[in-house]
Write a structure and sequence with these properties.
This protein is of the alpha+beta class. It has three helices and nine strands; from the N terminus they run βαββββαβαβββ. Strands 1, 2, 3, 4 and 5 form a five-stranded mixed beta sheet that branches. Strands 6-9-8-7 form a four-stranded mixed beta sheet, with helices on one face. It starts with 11 loop residues before the first strand and ends with a strand.
Length: 147
C-alpha cells in the first residue's frame, strides 16, 4: 500500500470542439502538432474525432478532440486573464512544453503570422510562459525553462 503508483504522465485529454476541421487546421497548421486520422464513431461515441499530439512520445496520444457542433466553450478575453479571471468549475488551460526561449519566440512569431494574440512572456519560478487561445476559446499555454 505504501508503494508509489508508477504513473508515466497523461495518456490523453479528451476535449470537445464545435468544428473539428478548424481545430485540426489550428493545432496542425498553426501550432505544427501531429494530427492523427479522423475517425467516426468507435466505442459508444458516434462523433467525428481525432488525436492531436503536441510531441513525439510512445506513451502519450495528446489531445483527443470530439466534434459536437452544439458545443459551447466559454472564452475569457486576454484582458480578463490579466485581471486574474477564471471559469468556475471548468478546465482552465492546457500547457505545452517547449525546449527553450528560442522555440518560444519562433512560436510567438508563428502565432502572430496567423493573427493569434498571445500574452507577453511571464515568469513562474523556473519557467517562462505565454498564453493564447485556440479558435474556439480553449486557453493554451506555452512554457519553457527560464534562462
Amino acid at each position: 500500500m505504501n508503494q508509489p503508483v508508477p504513473w508515466q504522465g497523461f495518456h490523453h485529454i479528451a476535449l470537445v470542439t464545435p468544428n473539428l476541421d478548424a481545430t485540426i487546421a489550428f493545432y496542425g497548421g498553426v501550432l505544427g502538432m501531429q494530427v492523427g486520422e479522423i475517425r467516426v464513431g468507435g466505442g459508444v461515441l458516434p462523433q467525428r474525432h481525432c488525436f492531436i499530439r503536441p510531441g513525439v512520445s510512445a506513451h502519450t496520444w495528446g489531445l483527443h478532440f470530439f466534434e459536437n457542433p452544439s458545443a459551447q466553450i466559454h472564452r475569457l478575453s486576454l484582458e480578463e486573464l490579466r485581471r486574474g479571471g477564471f471559469i468556475p468549475g471548468a478546465m482552465q488551460h492546457i500547457a505545452f512544453s517547449l525546449p527553450d526561449a528560442r522555440a518560444a519566440e519562433a512560436l510567438r512569431q508563428r502565432l502572430r503570422e496567423h493573427g493569434v494574440e498571445a500574452t507577453p512572456t511571464g515568469t513562474i519560478g523556473a519557467i517562462q510562459n505565454m498564453l493564447f487561445f485556440d479558435p474556439h476559446g480553449i486557453l493554451l499555454e506555452a512554457t519553457w525553462p527560464r534562462a
